[in-house]
Amino acid sequence: MFKRVLIANRGEIALRVIRACRELGVETVVVYSEADSGAAYLDLADFRICIGSAKSSDSYLKVDRIISACEVGGVDAVHPGYGFLSENAHFADVCKSCDYEFIGPTAEAMSLLGDKNSARKIAVEAGVECVPGSDGLIKSESEAIRFAGEVGFPVLIKASAGGGGRGMRVAENAEQLKTAIGQASQEAQNAFGNGAIYLEKFIALPRHVEVQVVADNFGNVVHLWERDCSMQRRHQKLLEESPSPNLRQRTRKAMCEAAVKLVKKAGYTNAGTVEFLVDGDERFYFIEMNARIQVEHPVTEFITGIDLIKTQILIAAGERLPFEQTDIKQNGHAIECRINAEDPDHNFRPCPGKIERMIIPGGFGVRFDSHVHTGYTVSPTYDSMLGKLIVHQPTRNEAISSMKRCLRELVIEGIKTSVPLQQKILDDNDFVSGKFDTMFIERKFMKK
Q: In whole angstroms, what is the distance from residue 175 CA to residue 68 CA?
């Protein structure tokens, strides 16, 4: 086991990794920017190192400064969390070349699956069905129009690198396609330093279902069942749950098995998530793989009883998976609400500022993963997520009731949050009956 791990991240996920390391008897070094210098979670790490100013490009995205922090901190390994450098193959490669174990997949596997275009090729080789897409990257308008003519409008323009909805556009006709290609490419270039794009047939009103997988260095690969992430706005998730409601068991089983096949084909190790779109006939299509831990991993931890962060660390330390596929059951139902500092009534405008008062809900099967507290100032520099409220109950209806109660108890004063919208979602009859798709929030709750 490692003696000391550096956490190349901030906020909620940094705190989550600190806690997992502490329980494993591993010391932690946490890096931070000047903007995060007063964050309370820094006190829980064994060591802290400032790596730059508030801007991510001057701190959390600075590979050389993080490697320097590794040297100063005398660490054995690096946990990248999610976001920032977590899916940066160059960073993983540099860590390895400097003899720091990267707690995640290899740089090679990350390059294969982190790029959506090459990931599609791996999926096809593994026999996993993909959304009909362009044969490689799109290099011209004429090529894009020709593809759209073959599969029919609407089509989806997607960035080959990155995620989170950036570099993604829907085009209903040729004129929209010409405009959207340039917009998507430029947005992707600005966000990820890579403006490459490709096209897919747009699947109308699908559900977004992802499968959690873990793989060790001895060829053992298992899935930890699926999460439904259809509750999103502009491709940003707001609520996740598991099991996926109204999904036939044979579809669930086939999707999870397909995810394992893809991971084995790619030679992937550590934790990752295979994402699918599911149409109205429950045909599922591979869309991408996230080569890192996901924000919503607590949902899976609740229903399986498996600590995913500890599992990541154990795999990176060279241990075998301590469980087999037959050991992993879906127990009960879990729901997660991402609590964001934003105003749903004003186009989800970010709402940085000081939290004047905060009361966290509790009770049976309730978990709140967050680094914020009364008196904490939410910076405009970083992601707006304040934390994740997760509940786990025997049935979905009980989980919904528990989450509604918890959202009523949650008090965050001084800034606007996403809580009022999440309360509306949980009260909606179609949501309660499991009749929804990825456009549910935009269709029902967003102003035109």
A: 49
> 173 phi and psi, to 5 degrees?
-155, 180
For residues 360 and 393, membership in a common domain is answered with: yes
| Known catalytic residue at 292 | yes
CA distances from 251 to 243, 282, 285 (A): 12, 7, 12
For residue 280, what are its two tokens?
């109205």
Per-residue CA distances from 375 to 35, 54, 113, 138, 410 (Å):
15, 19, 41, 49, 16
Domain that holds residue 26: 4-103
CATH number of the domain encompassing residue 170: 3.30.1490.20
> Three-state SS for 260?
helix
Residues 192 and 339 in one domain: no
Catalytic residue among 48, 169, 233, 292: 292
Q: What is the pLDDT of residues 282-321, one digit of tens each?
A: 999 999 999 999 999 999 999 999 999 999 999 999 999 9
CB-count burial class (<10 Å; 0-12, 13-18, 19+) for 264 = middle
3-state helix, strand, coil in the chain (%, to 5): 35, 25, 35
Q: Do 363 and 310 share a structural domain? A: yes
99 plus 176 within the same structural domain? no
CA distance readout (Å), 380 to 54, 55, 314, 352, 423: 10, 10, 35, 5, 25
Q: CA 130 to CA 37: how far, in whole Å?
A: 45
Residues 6+ apart with CB under 8 A from 57: none
Query: Are 171 and 42 within one domain?
Result: no
Total domain count for the chain? 3
**pTM of the prediction?**
0.90
d(CA 424, CA 446): 12
Q: Phi, psi (5° rounding) for residue 347?
A: 60, 35
338 band by pLDDT with thresholds 50, 70 and 90: very high
